Amino acid sequence: MQRYRNPSGTSGITGYESGPDFICIEYERGGVYVYTEKAVGRENLEQMKRLAIRGSYLNAFINRTPAIRRGGVKVDSEMSSRHDKGADIQNPPLHFES
Q: Is residue 61 within 8 Å of residue 95, measured between CB atoms?
């Protein structure tokens, strides 16, 4: 996972990882969420990637865009620990929490 810059210190996002058709976002309060192109739309996904690279306004964009708020899927802690070990995010183990 790449560290999210968050210069204001108010984002709540700590990390991200992206691929051609998804972005995973790690939140300060715990949890990694996967947002796919299919779930949030291509334009929204590409904007999320740009904001993640920029390191600001990503959380605000997610919060003000209903399609994105509804489109994230929380994945279990195994995925988080795999990120910490440099796992290949291109094939994430999607063990969903209920």
A: no
Prediction pTM value: 0.77
CB proximity list for 72: less than 8 A, separation 6 or greater: 25, 33, 34, 35, 39, 40, 62
Q: How far apart are CA 39 and CA 55, in angstroms?
A: 23
pLDDT digits (tens, 9 = 90+) for 55-97: 999 999 999 999 999 999 999 755 554 444 444 444 454 444 4
- Helix (H) / strand (E) element for 48: namely helix 42-54
How far are the Cα atoms of 45, 52, 55, 85, 88 from residue 62, in angstroms, in the given order? 10, 11, 14, 27, 25
Quote the mean pLDDT of the chain. Answer: 84
Every domain of the chain and the residues it spans = 2-84
d(CA 17, CA 64): 21
